[in-house]
């Protein structure tokens, strides 16, 4: 990890326990800030009520840290909207928000339209399909925003728990992160290689930042927001918080391929600088050991050999014969006598 990324990782990484709700409430009241939790949802009737209920109970009723819990329903075919409303969320259908701008179903569209129906100075985004998590996701994410006015975007990171077909669990989630996002950052934005979960679905931002950004309508919103914030404001505008562990519904490989394609489009649209040379590239990853996350750097074999024919031609012994045209000349170049060449 290069020096800037390593220094940022040490200075801008915290743990959710560093941000107790009582301390945050005092800071919020002192600043006169409002906090909105936004939950984008599509066909999540089985889990969305649990997410809404937990946040409202802990952070609206028990400790009045959150001012509104808003679910933006992105064209669900099930009872997501009704279930979320019954749990106490304010629910908006994405297609009904500012219909004059059209409808482009997707996560980015839901989050962009949430800016039109919320009033929080600080926005916390939480996915609707969570099954292993806690309200500390919200307190952890708003902590750095309330603590440091220079911070504009906070990314969560966690051990991603995946349930296998046999019922066992592993932490091998985050396939698109490992196969697409992290290699992209390592190649083109090495300053951001200290970000543990660049595609984390749980993150927080200042409204002023979100209102100024161009937002992809699909899954590319997390990467786009990270890249654009860094480009405009630098590393000091970013922070990250260890949220512990997270489990959610995992998607099919076909859906992940679409997500990967959207990320590549986002990266291509934002990569204006000349490409880095394909020499000395390192892949930056992270491993969790004994509850702590540490970086791991692995060299990428990126040196390219010249075409074999050219290499052989350059090292072939000199021939005393006269090459003929066509295939004979190729044979001679490789150091082998051919018919008609002697």
Give the overall pLDDT as a whole number.
84
Query: Distance between termini?
Result: 58 Å
CATH architecture of the largest domain: Alpha-Beta Complex
**What string, H for helix and E for strand, traces the elements in order?**
HEHEHEHEHEEHEEHEHHEHEEHH
CATH level 4 superfamily of the largest domain: Spore Coat Polysaccharide Biosynthesis Protein SpsA, Chain A
Shape: globular
- Binned strand content: 15-25%
How many domains? The number is: 2
Please outline the major beta sheet: 10 strands, mixed
CATH topology of the largest domain: Spore Coat Polysaccharide Biosynthesis Protein SpsA, Chain A
**Count of separate DSSP helical elements:** 12
- Unreliable spans are 166-173, 322-342
Key traits:
12 helices, 12 strands, 342 residues, alpha/beta, 10-stranded mixed β-sheet
Summarize the structure in words.
The chain has 2 domains: 297 residues, Spore Coat Polysaccharide Biosynthesis Protein SpsA, Chain A, CATH 3.90.550; 37 residues, no CATH class. The strands form 2 sheets. Strands 1, 2, 3, 4, 5, 6, 7, 8, 9 and 10 form a 10-stranded mixed beta sheet that branches. The chain has a two-stranded antiparallel ribbon with strand order 11-12. It starts with a helix and ends in a 9-residue tail after the last helix. 37% of the residues are buried. α3 links the parallel β2 and β3. The longest helix has 18 residues. With 342 residues, the chain is α/β, with parallel strands linked by helices. Helices cover 37% and strands 21% of the residues.
């Amino acid at each position: 990890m290069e020096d800037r990324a390593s220094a940022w990782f040490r200075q801008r990484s915290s743990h959710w326990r560093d941000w107790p709700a009582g301390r945050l409430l005092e800071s919020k009241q002192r600043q006169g800030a409002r906090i909105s939790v936004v939950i984008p949802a599509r066909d999540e009737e089985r889990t969305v009520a649990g997410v809404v209920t937990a946040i409202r109970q802990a952070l609206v009723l028990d400790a009045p840290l959150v001012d509104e819990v808003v679910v933006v329903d992105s064209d669900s075919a099930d009872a997501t909207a009704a279930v979320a409303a019954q749990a106490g969320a304010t629910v908006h259908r994405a297609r009904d928000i500012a219909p004059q701008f059209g409808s482009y179903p997707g996560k980015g569209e839901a989050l962009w339209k949430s800016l039109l129906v919320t009033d929080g100075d600080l926005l916390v985004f939480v996915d609707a399909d969570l099954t292993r998590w806690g309200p500390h996701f919200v307190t952890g994410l708003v902590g750095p925003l309330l603590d440091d006015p220079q911070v504009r975007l906070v990314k969560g990171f966690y051990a991603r728990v995946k349930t296998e077909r046999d019922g066992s669990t592993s932490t091998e989630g985050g396939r698109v992160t490992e196969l697409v996002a992290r290699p992209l950052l390592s190649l083109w934005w090495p300053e951001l290689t200290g970000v543990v979960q660049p595609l984390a679905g749980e993150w927080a931002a200042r409204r002023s930042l979100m209102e100024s950004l161009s937002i992809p309508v699909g899954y590319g919103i997390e990467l786009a927001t990270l890249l654009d914030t860094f480009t405009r404001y630098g590393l000091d505008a970013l922070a990250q918080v260890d949220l512990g562990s997270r489990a959610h519904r995992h998607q099919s490989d076909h859906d992940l391929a679409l997500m990967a394609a959207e990320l590549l489009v986002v990266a291509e649209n934002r990569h204006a600088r000349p490409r880095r040379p394909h020499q000395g590239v390192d892949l930056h990853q992270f491993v969790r050991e004994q509850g702590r996350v540490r970086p791991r750097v692995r060299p990428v074999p990126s040196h390219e050999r010249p075409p074999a024919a050219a290499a052989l031609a350059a090292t072939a012994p000199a021939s005393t014969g006269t090459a003929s045209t066509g295939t004979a000349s190729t044979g001679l170049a490789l150091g082998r006598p051919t018919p008609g060449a002697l």
